[in-house]
Amino acid sequence: SLSPSSPPTALLACVLSFNVDQKNSKSFSGGSLEDLFGYTVQQFENSEGKWVLIGSPLLGQPAKRTGDVYKCPVDKEHNTCVKLELPKNTTVPNLHEVKENMAMGTTLVTNPSGGFLACGPQYGYMCGQQQYISGVCANVSSSFQVLNSIASVQECAKELDIVILLDGSNSIYPWPSITDFLERFIKTIDIGPKLSQVGIVSYGETVTHNVNLSQFDNTAALMDFVRQLPQQTGFKTMTFMGINTTRLEAFLPERGARQGVKKVMVIVTDGESHDFHALDEVIAACDRDGIERFGIAVLGDYNRQNKSKDEIQKFIKEIQSISSEPLKDHFFNSDEVALLTIVDTLGSRIFALEATSSKYTSSFEMEMSQTGFSAHTSKEGVLLGAVGAYDWNGTVVMHTSGGTIVPGKTQFYDPSVEAGYERLAGYLGYDVQSASTPDGVLYITGAPRYNHTGRVVVYHLNKTEVVVSQILKGEQIGSYFGSVLQTLDVDGDSFTDLLLVGAPMFMGPDKDEQGQVYVYRLKQNGQFEHQFTLKPVNQSCCTAHSRSCRIKNEPCGARFGTAIAAVSDLNLDNFTDVAIGAPLENDHRGAVYIYHGDKMTLKEKFVQRIAAGGDGSKMKFFGQSIHGVMDLNGDGITDVTIGGLGGVSQFWSRDVAELHANLTFDPTKINLQQAQCEHGGRRSTCVTANVCFSYSVKSKQWDPASSTEIRYDLTLDAVRTKARASFIEGDRKISRTFYIRQSRCRNETFVMEARPDFRDPLLVTLDFGLTEEDRGPILDESLPRSINRTILLVDCGSEEKCIADLSLAAKASETWMLIKSSNDKIDVDITVRNRKDNAYNTKVTLSFTPNINFINVETDIVCSLLEAKVECAVGYPFFGSMEEKSFKVKFEANPKYVEEFILINVTATSDSEELPSTLHDNSVQISIPVKYEAGINFAVWPVDKHVVVRVGEEYPSTINNTTIGEEITMTYTLEMTGATPTPAIDLNVTYPHLSPRGNNLLYLTHMGASPQVTCNTKPKEINWDVTVLSPLKETLSDFLLSCQNLQCASFSCSIPENTSSQVNVSFRLWKPTFIKGDFSSLFMRVNASLSVRNSQLFQLSSSQRTQFTIQVSKETLGGIPIWIIIISILIGILILALVIFILWKMGFFKRKSRDYSKE
């Protein structure tokens, strides 16, 4: 299919630099946008003159889109383009051609013989009722005459031997429906000795040969016969007897069967067979004989007898088992009356066999190949892309003087290796190229739809066999990687240097089709290696939702890479250049980018972008086609032809000139104490600027005796607001023009001010160019158009030699450092003095060890960090005589690097000379010893444990590690928290082990640690069978049992550097000791501490120790002691007596008397 992608326009705007001249271009017209006029272009030359060939593949639309190629004269005043009528003169004998939609001009390439090749990939032909789209190319001579037609298919493969097997039993009714079906079916077949042959066999209870294959030599005679064909009749349907008899007898040579011709059997039956048992054997025999079978189930009798759905399904299943695979192409069902409706479908399925040798009739080889979709000519032959070959997987056809090579279906891929890839409709052959190497020719073709991402296949031919040497893969789905290819011999040594691969539909970040072009370098081993990727200017898309756009076209983007053309040395530097089309740019108006060759590659930055003008209504997609290999106007420079849809523009290239400039001064330094000229009534310092130019033109047609006008501007102190000098005329800037042949110099004098500020050199800028820039040669874009020169202002007396004497003092703010983090700072105070002449470009350099980082500098001194040193500009342009400057440079610790010392070397230098005897005080070395605090969070959890024992509690005589006493567990954690590296550390743990009388206190039973942590003791395991001796009774009078007053045990663990770790420890309390011991409550402590192995560099923080406390309490066995009970009773009695006494005193126990006298 043709996908429009770019047009040119008559009005072309905006060219960015260089030598393709857009102002004086020539436009060609003749077709329209709808005809795709400009889809392809080629520059061409013959004895009649120079031409531009323009393809218009949809010319003749909408009715007949035959397409054509126009020839347009370049050297005529009028731009009249003439059609070549190639479709009319391009023909393939022995074919029933279909040219209505052939799209001639889709492909257009010149060939080494002086002619050109034009292709119409939609060219078709008829084989019976089937139309095939194979494509055709016209080989056209230099005089525009069609020499011959190149087609992948030269004639129809019409030879088929077809035998129709008819069920003639009594159940077939009405019989005329069958003969009508036969008549119409036979009408679709071209019958003849070298065409197809048809035989007819009828069966019922017996089998009858009605027509032999060779009996009729034309279609009409057989049609007359079948109109009178009688019904076989019979009460049985012996289907498999009929099939087997047809197989054995109807395809015999005696009955007209031809050797090597495809055998086809069409079985028409209306009921289940009476010999179903023979199905497997008969069908297997047909498969062995290569007979393609079409089964037609006539359901009329079943419908008339109102057979059940299951019975009908059983019959259909039998006929399906007779038919070849796939059933969708080989099985039909109908009643007698409706048979006519399947004739066309049956015919197309059978005639598809004429075009393919495949088992599946829906598979095509070259019949739908669209050969000529792309083309490439070389001295080896013609490569034609055939994207539709092999079910649109595609292939590449090669025509040589020795014949035509059509690679097989699987020669471009390995089915075993590439299983799982979506290769169907890969469109191999979308574009074709060749590459010349010292070892031979490589052929290159693109398959832009392969696996949806596209790929490029690089191969060579071993006689007629394809040998794939490399696969280049696309990276984005739908990018159409490989749809455009272009090889380049950049340096002109006849060997290919680069391969450019277009992916014009590559989606940009804004989901627009920006496109990009991949540049591959051809290495000496014949493999392509990706170098870089070219991309267009980002487009501001004008979408259907935009309100500010006048024209709104989708898709948005550029489609950069739709066309890629090698252009023969545009800028005359002897390197091949490249033009790349971006036809969707600027709302589908289009643009073209020019890239220059450079040695054996390309410059990544485009040197020119030619954008189409106009409103984009009649001409669109400028950059759809590009060609540039010829000098069309006779000036010795390659010209560029750019096509779009609706028009073509011819651009002339301008000659390239080289203009070199040089600027020198006399004197070379400005000594302000030497006034050598008179100006304005005073003695002044004067300088002569010598401006020299050399000029040449690259083309061979340049006359060195001719003169060219150039211009130049000289500016003094261009970057200063007020200049310190002026030319004799009185201004800081002068402009001159003069004529030059090959070289010329001029002198310009300027004068310094009376008291200039000479802190920086005097900058003189020279801008230059050609006076006439819009016509004639254009300056080489790789050369500068401006140069800057500086001249030093010195003030060193009459000797013009400055002898400086620098001295340096530097002191650090710290003499020793403990580094805890990167927040630790150190300052260096620096003082620089100059005791003699001005020291020009004075700087102080500080180099330092990596364990510190530069932060900044205080005061107005400017310092810059260069790798592991700091440069501070102390005096620019000079550090004055007897001047002194002090400043402070700030550093911070870099804990990632561990060093014993911080070393800082401070040096003062300048561009002025200094006597060796005074250099001793130009540098200072500062050395600061350092230590690093290891950032560790050390803790134990839990921090304590309380254990209760009872007086007189019994313990077994034989104990194990669970009955000896309660388990006490603790976990030590070491977490690295600081910014400094952590050294290797030892964890030391001590614990109370034996009492003063040698009784066990704590017993180590288990120890576990993080990986890489190693401990120097194994936990004790108590033997189950050991009888524990009765501990000695003793008084444990100390409230705190620690290692100061009893015997302790210890162990240690080694922890690697920079490792957060955990150590788990378990003890058992030796309960018998505490049961026998005399105490009420006591405490024991397990102490842990950390130590650093490398104590010279590291020290620990205050949290390097921790303690775990065990409290042991003792209770009386059997309850509360009796003395406590007695005391409690007595206290209760006393409290009761006190209450009674208080109540008595208050009269609680007195009874009131009754007064009877009042009664």
TrEMBL record:
Q: What is this protein called?
A: Integrin subunit alpha 1
GO cellular component term, pick one: integrin complex
Under Gene3D superfamilies, the record lists: Bicelle-embedded integrin alpha(iib) transmembrane segment, Integrin alpha, N-terminal, Integrin domains. Chain A, domain 2, ntegrin, alpha v. Chain A, domain 3, ntegrin, alpha v. Chain A, domain 4, von Willebrand factor, type A domain
Record-annotated membrane-spanning stretches? 1120-1144
FG-GAP repeat residue numbers: 22-81, 467-529, 546-604, 608-668
**Family indicated by similarity:** Belongs to the integrin alpha chain family.
A GO term, aspect molecular function: integrin binding
Answer yes or no on keyword Iron. Answer: no
- Kindly report the protein's main subcellular placement as a broad class: membrane
GO terms under biological process? cell adhesion mediated by integrin; cell-cell adhesion; cell-matrix adhesion; integrin-mediated signaling pathway
Q: Where in the cell is it found?
A: Membrane
What InterPro entries is this protein classified in?
Answer: FG-GAP, Int_alpha_beta-p, Integrin_alpha, Integrin_alpha_C_CS, Integrin_alpha_Ig-like_1, Integrin_alpha_Ig-like_2, Integrin_alpha_Ig-like_3, Integrin_alpha_N
The answer on whether this UniProt entry bears the keyword Metal-binding reads: yes
Domain VWFA positions: 161-350
* Taxonomic superkingdom: Eukaryota
**Topology relative to the membrane:** Single-pass type I membrane protein
Q: Which PROSITE patterns match?
A: FG_GAP (PS51470), INTEGRIN_ALPHA (PS00242), VWFA (PS50234)
